[in-house]
Amino acid sequence: MRRWRHLILVLLAALIACAVTFFKKLPTVDGTVVVVHDGDTLTVAHNGGKEKVRLQGVDCPELAQQYGRQAKQFTTRLCLGKAVTVKVVTKDQYGRSVGYVTLPDGKSLNQELVRNGMAWWYEQYARGDRTLEGLQEEARKERRGLWAEKDPVAPWTYRRNNGY
User: Fold this and answer.
1) Which residue in 18, 49, 90, 127 has a CA-CA distance of 20 to 30 Å to 98?
2) Catalytic entry in 5, 51, 69, 96
3) Catalytic (active site) residue 112
4) pLDDT single digits (tens) 24-77
């Protein structure tokens, strides 16, 4: 019995140490959104510089796609000129920071886009995100945003079919 208790405590300590290390490595960027490129990409000014940010786990329609302009307008309305916090997860192949954006009111921009039918849950890059999955299902059932269309085309399909 004592041996098991000791093993559980050692495993728990290792798990906590890994979690602390993992979360310490995720940089946080506090700044002001100065450019909204499209629905899921923006530039944040901070510490005298600028950082281009791609939203983690979501994919908005391309600007040339139906709802692409609406997604950009939605993102612009929520964050342009406002202070945000970006929890960076990684860098993408284009050198952009990829992360979660928290708006001044504490809401997640990533989640608000999906909740309002302005973006797809990008399952390929956020498989375990049950929150985004649930928000997409809710938006689809309520026929919000792009889900009002009979057969909306996912942006990754649109890009593939149009040589992006």
Assistant:
1) 18
2) 96
3) no
4) 466 999 999 999 999 999 999 999 999 999 999 999 999 999 999 999 999 999
